[in-house]
């Protein structure tokens, strides 16, 4: 049995998973860590509470699996955590200042509470370590890029690994499918996966590049940033704006797609523009990744928006029949779990696959422990 820990910036999610089966046991989420009035002043307090909650159900606990957002260039897969690994995760903090410190807090507390258990780090960036040089390299001064670690890393890798595998199985090509994964949650990314290997992804050195997100801009001309700084904003102000006050929220004041869609239906122009920009960007990436892959077997939608919003899927894929993409309206509108929503005569299958990052972390953690034990 694996304890999965996702220690984020203001919340800790935990779940006990038996990968045989798989069977899910105790799960929970502690939110608002460090906020005024919260009973949890810091991550240590929240994680101790989580450990207490799972203790009565943790018979046969064999390992702890941790979500770590940024593995930098060092990590291309999940690893058994030791002091060296912790040091390398610390070295990646400048690349993910909002995420890696809280992930490290989770690791530190769990190593203290369960010193005898193997602890494994599973990186959001690792699945993208197969990006070919042409896809991972920014066309900037090489020496500067190398000195500062500037390259594309990609994120949402754990989800993308899981969803691309399930989608490939759904179309009967478990080992050889070409898959476009659209992970549309608060953060959003598109990835092109060929035979289980990621060949392109829309997030870059940070999770700011690519698609329009709930509050993040996605792609902007870098010139915009300098224009704003010369106009009087500080670099921190520009970053804060691009990360927290852009995307759907920046365009219409709402970051929840449900609210945006309600406003569009009520004839709200600002919401309609936000929705159109969001869908236009997605269509561009689908076209781009179709060209990157050459042939697409399945487009897989996941994340809160991708799994639940039939109107977004319909709008994004409308008019793409010349590219072999045809939705089945009834399947698309039905509310069920993992399923194909394309028409029978669609050359490219379209799938909805609820993501399961916790299960994927548990599976990868169990694999690392099994490999270590057999060495
Ligand atoms: P996170 O990226 O934080 O893990 P999720 O993947 O759960 O978040 O996605 C959250 C988003 O999903 C919400 O902000 C909301 O916009 C969207 N969402 C959830 N349900 C629906 C729905 N029925 N229709 C449209 N959007 C939805």
Largest sheet: 6 strands, mixed
Unreliable spans are none
Strand fraction band?
A: 15-25%
CATH architecture of the largest domain: 2-Layer Sandwich
* CATH H-level homologous superfamily name of the largest domain: ATPase, nucleotide binding domain
Describe it.
Catalyzes the formation of acetyl phosphate from acetate and ATP. Can also catalyze the reverse reaction. The active site is at residue 124. It is an enzyme of class 2 (transferase). There is one protein chain. The chain is of the alpha/beta class. It has 2 domains: 2-123, ATPase, nucleotide binding domain (Nucleotidyltransferase, domain 5, 2-Layer Sandwich); 173-357, Nucleotidyltransferase, domain 5 (2-Layer Sandwich), CATH 3.30.420. The protein has 15 helices and 12 strands. A 6-stranded mixed beta sheet has the order 3-2-1-4-6-5, with helices on both faces. Strands 9-8-7-10-12-11 form a 6-stranded mixed beta sheet, with helices on both faces. Strand 8 (188-194) and strand 9 form a beta hairpin. Helix 1 (43-54) crosses helix 3, helix 10 crosses helix 11 (269-293) and helix 11 crosses helix 13 (310-317). The mean pLDDT is 95. The structure holds adenosine-5'-diphosphate. Residues 185-187, 214, 256-258, 303-305, 308-309 line the site of adenosine-5'-diphosphate (ADP).
């Amino acid at each position: 049995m694996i304890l999965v820990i996702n220690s984020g910036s203001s919340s800790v999610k935990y779940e006990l998973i038996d990968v045989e089966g798989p069977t899910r046991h105790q799960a929970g989420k502690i939110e608002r860590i460090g906020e005024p009035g919260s009973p949890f002043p810091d991550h240590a307090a929240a994680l101790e509470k989580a450990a207490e909650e799972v203790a009565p159900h943790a018979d046969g606990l064999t390992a702890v699996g941790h979500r770590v957002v940024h593995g930098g260039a060092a990590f291309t897969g999940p690893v058994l955590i030791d002091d060296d690994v912790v040091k390398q995760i610390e070295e990646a903090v400048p690349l993910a200042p909002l995420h890696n410190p809280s992930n490290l807090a989770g690791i530190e507390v769990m190593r203290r509470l369960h010193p005898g258990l193997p602890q494994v780090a599973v990186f959001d960036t690792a699945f993208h370590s197969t990006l070919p040089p042409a896809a991972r390299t920014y066309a900037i001064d090489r020496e500067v890029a190398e000195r500062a670690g500037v390259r594309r890393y990609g994120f949402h890798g754990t989800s993308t690994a899981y969803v691309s595998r399930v989608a490939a199985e759904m179309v009967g090509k478990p080992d050889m499918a070409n898959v476009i994964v659209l992970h549309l949650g608060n953060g959003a990314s598109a990835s092109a996966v060929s035979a289980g290997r990621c060949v392109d992804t829309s997030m870059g050195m940070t999770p700011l590049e690519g698609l329009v997100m709930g509050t993040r801009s996605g792609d902007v001309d870098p010139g915009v940033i300098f224009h704003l700084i010369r106009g009087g904003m500080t670099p921190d102000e520009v970053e804060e704006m691009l990360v927290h006050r852009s995307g759907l929220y920046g365009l219409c004041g709402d970051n929840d797609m449900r609210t945006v869609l309600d406003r569009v239906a009520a004839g709200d122009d600002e919401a309609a523009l936000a929705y159109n920009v969001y869908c236009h960007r997605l269509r561009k990436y689908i076209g781009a990744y179709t060209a990157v892959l050459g042939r697409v077997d399945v487009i897989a939608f996941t994340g809160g928006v991708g799994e639940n919003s039939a109107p977004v899927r319909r709008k994004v894929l409308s008019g793409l029949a010349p590219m072999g993409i045809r939705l089945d309206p009834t399947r698309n509108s039905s509310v069920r779990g993992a399923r194909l929503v394309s028409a029978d005569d669609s050359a490219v299958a379209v799938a909805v696959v609820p993501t399961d990052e916790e299960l994927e972390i548990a599976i990868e953690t169990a694999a690392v422990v099994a490999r270590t034990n057999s060495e």
